[in-house]
Design a protein that fits this description.
Shape: elongated
Helix content: 40-55%
Number of domains: 4
Distance between the termini: 26 Å
Number of strands: 15
Bound molecules: adenosine-5'-diphosphate, zinc ion, magnesium ion
Structural class: alpha/beta
Length: 651
């Protein structure tokens, strides 16, 4: 049996595929990689420039010919030189015939002394005009000090470079602390999502309209002294569009949207999560008005203090940092924090306190008309064949979330493309329903003849019981083709969406779940491992009837277990506050309910044995029975198929 509410689809695939540019920030809030490189390059350039200048000075600028000091001495003795200019160690000699030549001497010895050593006499020297110039101050110092200053500059630059790295990351060297936030800027038309892109969830949209209004026109609210909530938490089952709706709020308001997922905070190094929070908020405040969105906040926001495995300091610090940042907001900062979770029951109460995430917005699974609307949204860009009727698809998909519907549409298009058609037909979508619900068909899973027979009788048993008992949902499809983990399945769907389930419906559901087991037992005198999931389902329903819904006359209308149990060691355990005696009574009641349902299923199956054989035989032949053909078999066997008006659902 396939229960549409029991599927667990992974939902977030498609958001991952979308392009979102990553920004990485550091303490300063500037883009650090770019700045780092720019700094680095400019420093290198500066050093090069200094080096060039230095060599230009030391090499000398002049084009005058160089002569050795001994040649100069000879020329002086010969009386060819009229004037010598001394600049540090540099000598410039003006010859009588107008030629200018240059030479060098040791810098700390007087020129006259040097020349005397080379054999120039005092008289000869006196004939030459000597002009001793001080070196120009700057050049002198540069030349003298650059060998010391250059390495020093290098070291200082390096220290500064390193310290910049360390600072931003809260003492995490290099880049661990950068917030991994993704930002969608208000000017980004391609990624912009508005309320028009979100179908259904009308109450949630209504509630969020106030936030949009504030972000659009904060002055109006601030002037009148109104306090706008700092935090909004979106709660709802996976795939109900929490992430989408948060983005739509930013899109509607035209503000920047920063998003980070709870699990991204938690990484190997303690303290990183907290510093990421800090980075993220700093960035958002710069871009205000803005929305900071913490997706899947239950990853960090679980009840503190009972973490398994010695507690989780990292998570607590990250959570604390979020709370600190939220408390530190001034109302005029125009930053609103949104968060999403599908486990509101495990959240730390500190998060939900007034002044933090005190606005709670609940997203429900879509009802029939919402589903149609969602299908229409995702149908926008797909070419449809004429026979497509999304209303029928919406009717057939109770319990589907928005994300399921999205993937249904997608699977349909994939099927059409694989078969080289240019338009998607209704049949593609019908096939996709089951694929999304149960996983792909496993045609390769070949059953032996005996196995096939057992599976056929098993599914026929479910289908027969569902068709005979008055409160069970009508059968839409039976198949003995393996799908996902199920060997075969019987798909029975409610005629209308419903919010309330009655005791009679539960009892018939249990009987139907046991129909496969009973059929195997009656036909083959033996049972297999096939019904193990059926037994789990039926036992769980029976147990809930007794402990949650007060549907056992013996126990009376008492709720013995909470809706979701409490959290212990990071896992949900049933919330049990009753004695051993009550516990034994519960077990007895559960057994009684199961036993009675088993008897009713057996009654149906033995009472309609020829019909059971007919269904099973047909299944062995064709492997899959659609609703119409199945109902024809029922009619031939003397049973009227259920029609819309036969079952009255309340609520
Ligand atoms: P959640 O965050 O609640 O798990 P998402 O927002 O990630 O769900 O939804 C996943 C996808 O499902 C969305 O990108 C969108 O394509 C589709 N979807 C979900 N709910 C809706 C909705 N109400 N209207 C339109 N599309 C939806
Ligand atoms: Zn079964
Ligand atoms: Mg999400």
């Amino acid at each position: 049996m396939a229960n549409p509410n029991n599927k667990n689809q992974s939902t977030d695939r498609r958001t991952k595929g979308k392009k979102q540019f990553k920004i990485v920030i550091q303490g300063g809030g500037k883009n650090p990689r770019g700045a780092m490189w720019r700094n680095f390059l400019s420093t290198i350039l500066l050093i090069l420039a200094v080096l060039i200048l230095y060599s230009a000075i030391t090499e000398g600028r002049s084009k005058n010919p160089q002569i050795s000091i001994s040649e100069l001495a000879q020329n002086i003795s010969a009386g060819e030189i009229s004037k010598i200019t001394v600049e540090g160690s540099k000598l410039t000699a003006d010859y009588s015939d107008g030629v200018v030549k240059e030479s060098k001497k040791e810098s700390d010895i007087a020129l006259s002394e040097t020349l005397v050593n080379y054999g120039v006499t005092a008289e000869e020297l006196r004939a030459v005009e000597l002009d001793i110039k001080e070196q120009s101050g700057f050049v002198f110092w540069l030349v003298t000090l650059s060998p010391i200053i250059l390495p020093l500059l290098f070291i200082i630059f390096f220290l500064w470079f390193l310290s910049r790295q360390v600072k931003g990351a809260g003492m995490q060297a290099f880049t661990f602390g950068q917030s991994k936030a993704r930002m969608i800027s208000p000017t980004d038309k391609k990624q912009r999502v508005t309320f028009k892109d979100v179908a259904g969830v009308k109450e949630a949209k209504q509630e969020l309209l106030e936030i949009v209004d504030f972000l659009r026109n904060p002055k109006k609210f601030l002037d009148i002294g109104a306090q706008i909530p700092k935090g909004v938490i979106l709660m709802g089952a996976p795939g109900t569009g929490k992430t989408l709706l948060a983005r739509a709020v930013a899109g509607e308001a035209g503000v920047a949207f920063f998003s980070i997922s709870g699990s991204e905070f938690v990484e190997m190094f303690v303290g990183v999560g907290a510093s990421r929070v800090r980075d993220l908020f700093q960035l958002a405040k710069k871009a205000a008005p803005a929305i900071v969105f913490v997706d899947e906040i239950d990853a960090v926001g679980r009840v503190r203090g009972i973490g398994a495995g010695g507690g989780n300091d990292e998570r607590e610090q990250t959570l604390n940092q979020i709370l600190v940042e939220m408390d530190g907001f001034e109302p005029n900062e125009k930053v609103i924090v949104m968060a999403a979770t599908n486990r509101p029951d495990v959240l730390d109460p500190a998060l939900l306190r007034p002044g933090r995430f005190d606005r709670r917005v609940i997203l429900d699974l879509p009802d029939r008309s919402d589903r149609e609307e969602i299908l229409n949204i995702h149908a926008r860009k797909k070419p449809f064949a004429e026979d497509v009727d999304l209303k029928v698809i919406a009717e057939r998909t109770p319990g589907f979330s928005g994300a399921d519907l999205y993937s249904l549409m997608n699977e349909g298009a994939i099927l059409a493309a694989r078969e080289n058609r240019t338009k998607v037909s209704q049949y593609d979508f019908i096939r996709s329903i089951e694929k999304v619900m149960l996983g792909p068909e496993r045609k390769s899973h070949i059953l032996s003849k005996k196995e096939k027979e057992i599976t056929a009788y098993h599914e026929a048993g479910h289908a027969l019981v569902a068709s005979v008992l008055p409160y069970a949902d009508p059968v839409h499809k039976i198949s003995i083709v393996a799908r996902g983990r199920a060997g075969g399945y019987t798909l029975n769907l409610p005629i209308e969406d419903r919010r309330l389930q009655s005791k009679n419906e539960f009892l018939d559901d249990i009987a139907m779940a046991l129909g496969g087991y009973v059929a195997e037992r009656e036909v083959f005198g033996d049972t297999t491992t096939g019904p193990s999931n059926d037994l789990q389902v039926s036992t769980a329903i029976a147990r809930d009837m007794v402990t949650k819904y007060g549907m056992s006359p013996k126990m009376g209308p008492v709720a013995l277990e909470g809706q979701d149990g409490k959290m212990l060691f990071g896992r949900g355990v049933p919330d049990r506050d009753y004695s051993e005696r009550v516990s034994a009574e519960i077990d007895a009641e559960v057994s009684r309910i199961i036993k009675e349902a088993l008897d009713r299923a057996a009654e149906v199956i033995t009472g309609h044995r020829p019909l059971l054989d007919a269904i099973a035989q047909r299944l062995i032949e064709v492997e899959t029975l659609e609703r119409e053909e199945f109902e024809n078999i029922l009619i031939a066997g003397g049973i009227t198929p259920k029609k819309k008006k036969d079952i009255e659902h309340q609520g």
